[in-house]
Amino acid sequence: MQSFVYQCPTEMVFGKDAELKTAEEIKKYGGSRVLILYGGGSAERSGLIDRIGSVLQRGGLAFKKMGGVHPNPRLSFAREACACAQAFSADFVLAVGGGSVIDTAKAVAIGLAHPGKDIWDFWTRKEPVTGAYPVGVVLTIPAAGSESSDSAVLTDEESKRKRGLNTDFNRPRFAVLNPELTYTLPRFQLSCGITDMLMHTLDRYFTIDRNNQLTDELAEAVMRVIIRNGRVAHCDQTNYDAMSELMWCGSISHNNLTGLGNEKDFSVHQLGHELSAMFDVAHGASLSAVWDSWANYVMPSAPERFARYAEKVWGVSGGDTAEKAKSGIMLTVRFFRSLDMPTCFSELRGVGIQPDDVLHKLASNCMYDGARTVGTFCKLDIPAAYRIYQNANY
C-alpha cells in the first residue's frame, strides 16, 4: 500500500425529504446570498427548484436562480454563471442536479475566489487555485460522485477540449441525497450514471499496486452493489432501496476511498473525454464505448488482475487466468449492454464509424499532442490510444 493522506470533509445528508434541510446546511457553512445553479427541464417541471427556493426563503436566505447547465458542462456557461454570481454578490453556490451542474458550481466557486482571473486558466494549469467559495449540492442523479469529489470537468466548446481539475478546494461543504429525487430521470441518463460510478471504481481498481487488501475489497464490494442494484433500477427506477444504494455508491466511488494506497489509472476517462469534447456525447456513454477496447488492449500486461476482478466481482470460477480475465471483460460489456449503453463507436450516438484521420486526432488530443501519457496500470501514448480507438471503431 502506497502512502496517502485522506480527508473527505463533505457532510452527507441522506434520506427522504433531506432537501428540506438545505437552508440550515447553507447557514451552517456561512452562506447568506446563494446562487442556485441547475440544468433545466426536469428540475423545473418536477417543482424541485421552486421547493428549494421556498426552503431558502423560509430560512431567510437571499438567492438567485440560474438554469441552463448542459451535459459536458460548458466553459462559456460557467463564465456567465460566475459573472452572475459576482453581480449578485453571492457568497455560496448551490448545485441542484448531477455532475455537470456540480462541476459548474465548483468552477463558479473558484472564479468568485479569484476575481479578475479567467476560470479556464485554472483548468489549463496556467493559474494555481488558492481558494474557493463554499458549494452545496442537492443531488438528483446517482452518477458522477462530484458531490463528494475533489474533481471538476469543463469543456471549452471553441477548442473542443475537455479538461479536469483536481483540488481539495473543489470539495462541496455538504450534499443532500434524497433517492426519491431520482425517480423522474430519463432511463438513458440513469444508465449513464450507473456506468460512470462503476467506471470511477474500475479506474482506481486497475492499478499497478498489488498489496492493498482493504481498498481492493472495498472497491469490489462497491462494484458488486452497483451491478446488483443497477439491474433493479434499470427495470424500476422508483425502487427506493435500489436507488438508495446507487446514490450512495456514486458518492463513495469518487471520493477516493476505493483507491486509497493505489495510484489511479483513469485512462478510460481520458479516452472518453476526447469523445465527449469532439462529439458532445454523454459522458457515461463515452466510457462504455471505449472500455471493452481498452480492457482487451491492456489485459495482457496483467491478466491476473483482470482474473481477480472476474472472480471477486462477477463470481467467475472456471478456467485459467487468461480465460477468467476474458470472462470478466465479457461480463462487464454484457452488463453495459443490459443497460442499453453503447460498447463501440457504431452504437455511440453522433459518432458512428469515423475515418482514420479522426481517430488519429482523438489520440493526439488525448495525449495533448504528445506532451503526456495517460494511465498507470498500462501507460498509453498516442499510438496506443489510436489503437484503442481503432479497435472500438466497429
Automatic annotation (TrEMBL):
The Fe-containing alcohol dehydrogenase-like C-terminal domain, residue ranges: 195-373
- Gene Ontology MF annotations: alcohol dehydrogenase (NADP+) activity; butanol dehydrogenase (NAD+) activity; metal ion binding; methylglyoxal reductase (NADPH) (acetol producing) activity
Q: Name one Pfam family in it.
A: Fe-ADH
Q: Which CDD domains does this entry report, sorted A to Z?
A: BDH
**Name under which the protein is recorded:** Iron-containing alcohol dehydrogenase
Can you list the GO cellular component terms from the UniProt entry?
A: cytosol
Xref: InterPro entries:
ADH_Fe/GldA, ADH_Fe_C, BDH-like
Top-rank lineage group of the source organism: Bacteria
- Residue ranges of the Alcohol dehydrogenase iron-type/glycerol dehydrogenase GldA domain? 9-179
The organism's taxonomy opens as:
Bacteria, Bacillati, Bacillota, Clostridia, Eubacteriales
